[in-house]
Structures are given as C-alpha cells and as structure tokens.
Amino acid sequence: MLELLKNLASWLTSGPQWSGNAGIAHRLVEHLEYSLLATLVAAAIALPIGMLIGHTGRGAFVAVNLASFGRALPTVGLVTLVFLAGGLSKWPVYISLVALAVPVIITNTYAGMAAVDPDIKDAAKGVGLRGHQVLWQVELPLALPLIMTGIRLATVQVIATATIAAYVSFGGLGRYVYDGLAQRDLVQVLGGAALVAVLAVAADLALGGVQRLLLRGRPASAR
Amino acid sequence: MIKFDEVHKRFPNGTTAVHDLSLEMPEGQITVLVGSSGCGKTTTLRMINRMVDPTSGTIRLAGKDILESDAADLRRGIGYVIQQSGLFPHRTVLDNVATVPLLLGWGRKKARSRAAELLETVGLAADAGKRYPHQLSGGQQQRVGVARALAADPPVLLMDEPFGAVDPVVRTQLQDELLRLQKDLAKTIVFVTHDIDEAVRLGDRIAVFRTGGHLVQCAEPAELLARPADDFVADFLGAERGLKLLSLSTLAGLPQGPAPEGGRWELALDSARKPLGWRDGDAAADSPLLPVRALRDGDSLLSAVNESIASPAGLVARVDADGVLTGVTARAEIHDHAGEAHISAGAAA
C-alpha cells in the first residue's frame, strides 16, 4: 500500500509526466475544455427552461421528472449510443455531458424560484413591477443561491464524468484511467482518478467563490 | 374617490368572491372592509389595483374605469401594503422603500433621499435604511411596508390586514401612527381587517361583508355600532358593541366636581397637584396607595367607564393636558352619560 502511494506520488510529480501532448498539463486542459463547454451549453439550455417553469409555475412536473430521469440516465450507455449512431467525433461526448448537466440545473433553478415567498412576488407585482421585472429583480436574485448550487453540482458531475471522452478515443484525464486499466497499470489509473477528483473540488471551490461574490453584502436570510 | 358599480367576481373554480358590489370609498377617508375569512373583502381590495379583475361591473378611480389603465402603471399610482410586509429580503430597507420611485424613473439619488425622508415619516431611525428587512422586528417591517407604499405619494393606499401579524401592543402603536399620518396626508385608504376593534378605531366608514361576498352594511362606526342592519352585523360587532360605541366618544363636556375630602377615600396629590393614588382612610397609615389612572378630556368614554369601575372610590380623576388635577367625576354620572351617548348615537344615525 505504502509502495503504491509512493509510486503514485512520483507519477504525479515527475517532470516528463506533465509535459508533451500526452502529459498531465495537456490532458488537464483537454478535460477542462470538455467540462466547461458542456456545462456552459447545459446552462444556456437549462437556465431559461428552469426560469420559465419557475416564473409561470407551469410545467413543474417536467422539472420534477427531469430530475429523476437525469439521475437514472447511464452516461456511458448514452455516449456509446451516440457514438454508434454518429460515428467518431466529439459530439457523443458533449451530448452525453450536456444531457447529464441539464436536469440538475433545471431542477435547481426551478426549485429556487418556486421557493420564493409568494407574498414577496405578490407585493412586487402589487407595487407595480411588470412580469419581467418581477423575474429579474425579485425571483432570480432570490433564487440565485439555489441556481448557483445547481451549476456547481452540474460542474462537479460533468468534470467527474468527462473521463468518458477517453472511452471514445479522445483525450482528457480519462485517458490515464482507461489506458491504465488496459495496461493493468494501477498507478496510472489512480493518478488519473486523483487528478479528476482534485479538478472537481477545485472547480467547486472556485464557483463557491463566485457565488459568495455575487451574494456579498446580503444578509444570511437571503443567501 | 373609488366607486364600485355592480361588481361581481366569480373565480374559475365557481366560487363567488364578490357579489354585485356597489360601494363608494370617499376621498381622503379610511374605508375599512371587515368580515370573517372568505367574505370577499381581500378580493374587493385587490380588484382596486387590478391584482384581481372583476368578472363584471366597473370600478372607477377618480372617475376613470380602472380596466382602461395598464395594470402595472395603475399599481404604481396606488400604495399597497400587505400582511407580511412583502419586503424584498435581498434589498436594503432604503432600496425597498425606493422601489416605486425607481420604477417611475426618478433616478437613484432622488429616489433614495425620498426613501430616507419616508423612513423618518413612519417613525424609523435613519440607520434602519442600511439594514435588511429580516434584521427588523415585525412592527418595524410593517412600518417599512407603509413607507414603501407612500414613497411615490400616491393618492390611494390599499392595506390588506397590514397589522394582522404583530402583537397587540405594537398593533395599537401602528394604528396610532397610521391615524397620525392620515391627519397630515389625507389619503384615500382602503383597509382590510377581520378585527372589528381595529375597524372601529381606524375607519371613517366601515363596510361589513358576509360570506359569499355580500356587502351587508356600510356606515360610519357610530351608526354601525348603534344600529346594526341585521343580526349578522350585530353578531359580528359582538356583545360589547355598546362599549365599543363608547370608545368613539370622549370625556369632554362631562361635568366634574372637587376631589373628595374627609371621607374614606382621598386622592393623594404630589406638589404639582398631579394624582398619585387613592388613600384608604380605613387602612393603616403606612399602607400603599391604590392606583389611579387619571383621564384627560380627550380620553374615551369607554376608558372612563373602565376607570369608574376600577377606582375604589367610584370616582374618576380628571386632569388637564399637563396631568394636573382638574376635578373628579362620579361613576353614576359617567354611566348616565354613557347611556345618553348611546341613545344619541342611535338617534343621529
């Protein structure tokens, strides 16, 4: 066990391991690229849908069912399916990752907006805010904490799952995991997994910082 | 003036909230809509700022059919206060109050200085503006709610059970403040409550609603208490409606005599001739004085009846504005006067 950890440490810290096209630095950038692009696209799709459901109160069942659907969706199965249907491209990777992230963001956005006190919305309308003003000035700011939680959850899940890019022959940190498994190189598998975990935690912390920045000055009751 | 003309509201689920309502809410007065829950009083209020649109009939505000106005524009010209204050928890108190001026495009600086001015008007310290709603007590939040409603100086104020969620002591304070504000501002106020005492206290006119959205009686408080239109209104006003009527008259004009001397009960005074308490001549010399609650001319006849019962001497001590004794009035005199007040209110109505 101790031997394994030593090997892992030297694998992670050796200079040559970090450089070149198959090096950790390059794989990290690839991994981040897949993850961030997928999360951004997912957010671009999911935020408006979640906002619409939350604001109108219509289609709430869609949001609730999406959550269960998203949890049950096997990402590896989806990536294989799209790969078989569409051939060799990055599309299967992105489609799978986006499909993974969208439900989380929709349900959190919807839940955040649904949790806004109806009295506050009523008062906002009653003092003369128009529908879009209620949305932007009251509902969204108050739902922001939960919306951000959704985005953080989605980002962590996408980073953890973006290893599947390697499953369909592309790069990213998953390369080490799949190659290590194929070569029965446990150190490489562990190294890849550890890097993915660290990246996920780092992304979550960074987004947590963004969230604090967005909510700065607010009392605890509105965070 | 707000004028309801045969207004009917039926909700999609088939319940009738307001039944053929014709009612005028006079300018510069407080009209209280009162009734038990489900009587349509809140729906009536919410139809005025188009939070609910009537199924049929017309509502005119200053002569204009409100359905001709854009709903949001209409609401910006009408103050709106609700029970849980409905303040925005993510905005400071000052920004909450500045909401409507900002919507009207006043510009941030002007809106904020107006908001600060209003916080003072409703009796809040200036530094309250920097705080967030949840950092204030329930009573303070309601004051902020009133300030927000007044911010753009609308002629009409709609208040939906605004003091329903605060404790009785704070409620009384808020009611006093509202009456004080109203003296200066003379807004057309429509006030919803289920508390008949609040209605009597605040209302220039009281409209009593019955379940199903029927208006049963609309009258001035004294008329309502003296001559309820039917058993429903009488029941709603409660068994103490005679006493409530007394809360509307004052002690002024009630004759007073000199304080008793030489009997069992003597009124102890301080050096400025302010009453301290009743001294019992039959008790030991060092026994404590019994409490006295001296009344001024502006105090209600109800408080006089109460004091005449509470006073061991059966006398009510009367004082001037400075608290200096002017004389006493006997229990029998007060009770006679109370009875006459009741009869004359009935006759006037």
Molecular structure report:
The complex is a heterodimer of chains A (223) and B (349). Chain A has 223 residues and is an all-alpha fold. Chain A has a single domain, classed as MetI-like fold. Chain A is built from eleven helices and no strands. In chain A, helix 4 packs across helix 6 and helix 6 crosses helix 8. Chain A is elongated, with a radius of gyration of 21 Å. The model of chain A has no long low-confidence stretch (mean pLDDT 89). Chain B is of the alpha/beta class and 349 residues long. Chain B has two domains: 240 residues, Rossmann fold, CATH 3.40.50.300; 84 residues, Roll (CBS-domain). Chain B contains 13 helices and 14 strands. In chain B, strand 7, helix 7 and strand 8 form a beta-alpha-beta unit. In chain B, helix 5 packs across helix 6 and helix 12 packs antiparallel against helix 13. Chain B is globular. The model of chain B has no long low-confidence stretch (mean pLDDT 91). Chains A and B meet through helix 7 and helix 8 of A and helix 2 and helix 4 of B.
Question: Can you tag this structure with a few keywords?
Answer:
heterodimer; A: 223 residues; mainly alpha; MetI-like fold; 11 helices; 81% helix; 0% strand; B: 349 residues; alpha/beta; Rossmann fold; CBS-domain; six-stranded mixed sheet; four-stranded antiparallel sheet; EC 7.6.2.9 (chain B)
